[in-house]
Amino acid sequence: MSKQSDYQLVRALGHGAFGTTFLVSEKATGKECAWKRITIANEHDRQMAQSEVEMLQRVRGEFLVSFLGSFEENLEFFILMEYCDQGDLRKFLNDLKERNETISEDA
């Protein structure tokens, strides 16, 4: 089972209503992944985090971020996911729009 000390924090990637996402590197392998950290203030927060994990475990696909694992430590819940170095889809589309570029459906 993973624990917080297994990972080296690289940098923050973003934050949302339920947590902050970081780029981390697994100390043993050097593998980079995205790590969402959710503070657990009450049982409702824990249930929301667990629901997100259950959803990530159920949905899999070639074009979806892979779920790598999760753990809870010191009233924080951590969700490990595949790191996408080009950012998320919204960022990708906004970058295309700013450059007045399009992409074919076959890309």
TrEMBL record:
Q: Which GO terms describe its molecular function?
A: ATP binding; protein serine/threonine kinase activity
InterPro entries, A to Z: Kinase-like_dom_sf, NEK_Ser/Thr_kinase_NIMA, Prot_kinase_dom
Give the enzyme class: transferase
Q: Does the keyword Iron apply?
A: no
User: Which organism was this protein described from?
Assistant: Streblomastix strix
Q: Which reaction does it catalyse?
A: L-threonyl-[protein] + ATP = O-phospho-L-threonyl-[protein] + ADP + H(+); L-seryl-[protein] + ATP = O-phospho-L-seryl-[protein] + ADP + H(+)
Keyword list (alphabetical) reads:
ATP-binding, Kinase, Nucleotide-binding, Serine/threonine-protein kinase, Transferase
Q: Does the keyword tRNA processing apply?
A: no
Q: Which Pfam families match?
A: Pkinase (PF00069)
Q: What is the protein name given in its UniProt record? A: non-specific serine/threonine protein kinase
The EC designation for this entry is 2.7.11.1
Instruction: List, for all copies, the residue spans of the domain called Protein kinase.
Output: 7-107
